[in-house]
Amino acid sequence: MEEVILVNEQDEQVGSMEKMEAHRKGVLHRAFSVFIFNDRNEMLLQQRAITKYHSGGLWTNACCSHPRLGEETEVAALRRLQEELGFTTSLTKIFDFHYNASFDNGLTEHEFDHVYVGTYTGKIKPNPAEVKDYCYKKIEEVTATIQSHPHKYTAWFCIALPKVVEWLGDKK
C-alpha cells in the first residue's frame, strides 16, 4: 500500500494517507515535478502511459510523483526519474506551488508541488508501465501548443510551465 505525505499550506507534514484515498478525497499532499533540458535547451516531455490512474495519455514534464514517508523530496525525484525514464542527473529545486485539479474519473490532485530542473543528454529507457512516449521540444513550441491544445497536457504541467519559463528568463 503506497502512502502519500499529507501537508498543510506551508508544506509541514500533518499525517499520511493511502495514495488513492488521498486522491479520492482531494486531501493536500506533497508532490514533486521534474523538468529536464538537453544541451540544446530543449525540454524533455513524456506522454503518460494510458493505464495511469489519471491523466493517462497526456503529455507532461519529465516526471512527477510523490515522496514516500520519510523520504526527502529530492531523493524521491531522483528515484522516480530512474524508475520512469531510466536515468538520473543532478537536480536543482527552483520553486514550489500549490494546485487543486479534479478529473473526470472522480479523483483530485491537491498537491504542494516541489519543482526541480536538471540537464541530461544521454540515453533514455522509458518504463512502459509509466511512459507511453517521450520527446524533446523547444520550450517556445511547448508553450504555443499548450495555448492551442491545453487538453493534451496534464493540469499541473500547464500551471508549472509558465513558472519554469519565468525562472529560465530570470537566469539569463
TrEMBL record:
The lineage of its organism: Bacteria, Pseudomonadati, Bacteroidota, Chitinophagia, Chitinophagales. One of its GO terms (cellular component) is cytoplasm. It comes from Segetibacter aerophilus. The active site is at residues 64, 111. GO terms for molecular function: isopentenyl-diphosphate delta-isomerase activity; metal ion binding. Its EC number is 5.3.3.2. GO terms for biological process: dimethylallyl diphosphate biosynthetic process; isopentenyl diphosphate biosynthetic process. It comes from the Bacteria. Transmembrane segments: none annotated. Belongs to the IPP isomerase type 1 family. Residues 27-159 form the Nudix hydrolase domain. Keywords: Cytoplasm, Isomerase, Isoprene biosynthesis, Magnesium, Manganese, Metal-binding. Pathway: Isoprenoid biosynthesis; dimethylallyl diphosphate biosynthesis; dimethylallyl diphosphate from isopentenyl diphosphate: step 1/1. This is Isopentenyl-diphosphate delta-isomerase. InterPro entries: Idi_bact, IsopentenylPP_isomerase_typ1, NUDIX_hydrolase-like_dom_sf, NUDIX_hydrolase_dom. It is an enzyme of class 5 (isomerase). The gene is idi. CDD domains: NUDIX_IPP_Isomerase.
